[in-house]
From TrEMBL:
Protein name, as recorded: Haloacid dehalogenase
Gene3D superfamilies, alphabetized: 1.10.150.750, HAD superfamily/HAD-like (3.40.50.1000)
InterPro entries recorded: HAD-like_sf, HAD-SF_hydro_IA, HAD_sf, S-2-haloacid_dehalogenase
GO-annotated molecular function: hydrolase activity
């Protein structure tokens, strides 16, 4: 059993775990596909996005997240035999500022913050995360973004930076719990680094559940919501 008293810090993946991004991504891509007369919809477009995103985020030097979204949009367009639309590309790159938080995010984070440092380890740029923090109405004690470390999870720089920051505050790796929805980007690297982890498997959500390394993931605890996590470890 994982108990909150055994940890001094709880770090979170943000998008998919705390921010409910998939419906917004699907809605944007569906509207675009309909406008272009393309029949591909829903999960197919979402997984096309996931494939493109995983490949683009491996490239070094790393792109800022709005550029990742621009490149994803262009690759999806090519996959659908469409010419990239610069107006739609720019609109897609700005969507993170409007992605909503899950209904249990704010209360769950505030409860955890009473007992531990709460951090964000996110494959995002600083400006987009700032908007998401406003949408969550929450201020993290620790923030590690892709923009800060110049890399994207599942690469380890996010985790290494968080471990170093927390060690500087007297919190060893053994007292960190990492929480994520993505098996590929969060649970598998946490396993490899010896960080205990909880998988929030949000119902009907798909991103990060497949691809390189996902099948190897071994969470210490599996739940379906942040509220369930708080209840289980408190």
């Amino acid at each position: 059993m994982l108990r909150l008293k055994d940890f001094d810090a709880v770090t979170f993946d943000v998008y998919g775990t705390l921010i409910d991004w998939e419906p917004s991504i699907i809605a944007f891509l569906d509207a675009w596909a309909e406008k272009e007369g393309i029949k591909t919809r829903g999960a197919e477009l979402l997984m096309a996005f996931d494939r493109a995103r995983a490949e683009i985020q491996k490239e070094r030097p790393a792109y800022l997240y709005p550029d990742v979204l621009r490149k994803c949009f262009d690759r999806i367009a090519v996959e659908l035999d469409l010419s990239p639309d610069p107006v739609q590309r720019e609109a897609f790159s700005a969507t993170p500022h409007f992605w909503p938080a899950y209904s249990d995010t704010h209360d769950g984070l505030k409860i955890l913050q009473r007992a531990a440092k709460v951090g964000a380890l996110s494959n995002i740029d600083n400006a987009s995360l700032a908007s998401s923090c406003k949408n969550m109405n929450f201020t993290f004690d620790l923030v590690v973004t892709a923009e800060r470390v110049g890399a994207y999870k599942p690469d380890w720089p996010h985790f290494n930076a968080a471990i170093a920051d927390l060690q500087a505050q007297g919190i060893p790796k053994e007292r960190i719990l990492h929480v994520g929805q993505s098996l590929r980007a969060d649970i598998t690297p946490a396993n490899k680094l010896g960080i205990r982890c909880a998988w929030i498997n949000r119902p009907d959500r798909l991103l990060g559940l497949s691809g390189e390394g996902a099948a190897e993931a071994k969470p210490d605890l599996t739940l379906s919501s942040l509220a369930e996590l708080v209840a289980a470890i408190s």
